């Protein structure tokens, strides 16, 4: 069987994708608007040794597969691979189709991949040193690169679009403001922002609500960028961002805690201690807003820990259902006061990030290298598919630490229309 036809068979002949290969073979419909080009035998070896999502990703990141046309369109049509991966039977069939020779080739993964053997040398899962290295792997790529992709807000979490035609900056402002209103922030309050990134929430809370904010991040580059932004905004008396593990924060008595995009890095085994730590940082009546990506249900057996996202993007990342997170919070004393799913908003956020990367592609490649730029293009387009097809969700959960008399301090009805 011709090589292009084998790839078409693996991806699915109904996908409306064209294929061409270095052996001169072609497959798929004539005039298809997207085409997958197999450029060398190394691409075949990658697929033979890891049939499905991971093998295709390795071949693309390393430059042995090229994509002609829109990445999102390609992945949307390949959604069974990009969001579910192939079944064991399909993987065996792929190996048989490709033959034994590609299995015997020595083809190390691209350098952008973080393998389990590398992580194991850094300690047990979610040990402080290992967490620090994992965060460094993803977030210390280049502040300039992130600025091109994320835009002026430097917000690397799901935005909240007040209207379909809202800009990304408007939507990120709306997200931070929604968090602030849910937390009931007022001048003179103290806010702890764990996993603060480039300081977007800290800056927003200090500037617009007069709150004293401490943000912490495990990324040195993020902390340096945030501290500079705080100084440029003249907010040094209100906001501070530290390069440190949230577990090393010694201050207590906060009026509010925001956790925006950190829970995914905590690990299922550590959720109880995580929420207990945050509970202990709050005053009676204090609120926690937890904003994170989740699994759609609690029935999935696993979250593809050996797949592309875990190896290239978020090593050691773990997702749980919102029901599981709420139960953990409740069992530790939080009263849950509000919850909402922002799944469609994250798909829209990612579309803006993909457009930003496309618009600055040549500069991005010059800054971080072709392989890393391709990781980002692939991961963000694939995540759009995941959120659109309800393979992943984004939830905000608001919890309150009641006082000794059981008072929450939450108004009978939320003010200023949240959500």
TrEMBL record:
> A single Gene Ontology molecular function, please?
methyltransferase activity
The family database entries (CDD domains) matched by this protein are listed as: AdoMet_MTases
What biological-process GO terms show up in the record?
A: lipid biosynthetic process; methylation
Q: Where is the active site?
A: 383
Q: Which Pfam families match?
A: CMAS
Its transmembrane ranges are none
**Superkingdom assignment:** Bacteria
Q: Which UniProt keywords apply?
A: Lipid metabolism, Methyltransferase, S-adenosyl-L-methionine, Transferase
Q: Which PANTHER family match?
A: CYCLOPROPANE-FATTY-ACYL-PHOSPHOLIPID SYNTHASE
Which family does the similarity line name?
Belongs to the CFA/CMAS family.
- What name appears for this protein in its UniProt entry? Cyclopropane-fatty-acyl-phospholipid synthase
């Amino acid at each position: 069987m011709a090589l292009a036809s084998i790839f078409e068979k693996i991806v699915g002949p109904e996908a409306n994708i064209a294929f061409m290969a270095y052996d001169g073979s072609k497959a798929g419909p004539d005039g298809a608007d997207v085409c997958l080009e197999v450029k060398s035998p190394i691409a075949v070896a990658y697929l033979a040794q890891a049939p499905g999502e991971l093998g295709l990703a390795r071949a693309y990141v390393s430059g042995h597969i090229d994509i002609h046309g829109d990445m999102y369109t390609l992945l949307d049509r390949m959604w069974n691979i990009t969001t579910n991966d192939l079944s064991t039977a399909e993987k065996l069939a792929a190996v048989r189709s490709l033959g034994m020779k590609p299995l015997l080739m020595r083809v190390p993964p691209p350098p952008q991949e973080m393998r389990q053997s590398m992580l194991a040398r850094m300690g047990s899962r979610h040990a402080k040193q290992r967490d620090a290295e994992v965060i460094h792997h993803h977030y210390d790529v280049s502040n300039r690169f992130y600025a091109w992709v994320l835009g002026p807000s430097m917000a690397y979490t799901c935005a909240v679009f007040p209207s379909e035609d809202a800009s990304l900056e408007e939507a990120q402002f709306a997200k931070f403001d929604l968090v602030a209103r849910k937390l009931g922030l007022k001048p003179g309050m103290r806010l702890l922002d764990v996993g603060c990134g480039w300081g977007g929430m800290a800056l927003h809370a200090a500037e617009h609500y007069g709150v004293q904010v401490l943000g912490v991040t495990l990324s040195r580059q993020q902390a340096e960028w945030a501290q500079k932004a705080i100084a440029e905004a003249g907010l040094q008396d209100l906001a501070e961002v530290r390069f440190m593990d949230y577990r090393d924060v010694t201050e207590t008595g906060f009026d509010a805690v925001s956790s925006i995009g950190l829970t995914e890095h905590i690990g299922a085994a550590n959720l109880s201690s995580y929420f207990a730590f945050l509970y202990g940082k709050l005053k009676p009546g204090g609120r926690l807003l937890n904003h994170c990506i989740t699994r759609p249900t609690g029935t999935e057996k696993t979250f593809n820990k050996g797949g592309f996202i875990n190896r290239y993007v978020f090593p050691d990342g773990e997702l749980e259902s919102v029901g599981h997170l709420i139960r953990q919070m409740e069992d530790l004393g939080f009263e849950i006061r509000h919850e909402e799913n922002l799944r469609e908003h994250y798909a829209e956020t990612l579309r803006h990030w993909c457009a930003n990367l496309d618009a600055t592609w040549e500069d991005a490649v010059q800054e971080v290298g072709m392989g890393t730029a391709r990781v980002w293009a692939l991961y963000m387009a694939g995540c759009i598919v995941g959120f659109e097809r309800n393979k992943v969700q984004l939830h905000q959960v608001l919890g309150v630490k009641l006082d000794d008399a059981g008072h929450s301090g939450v108004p009978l009805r939320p003010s200023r229309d949240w959500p």
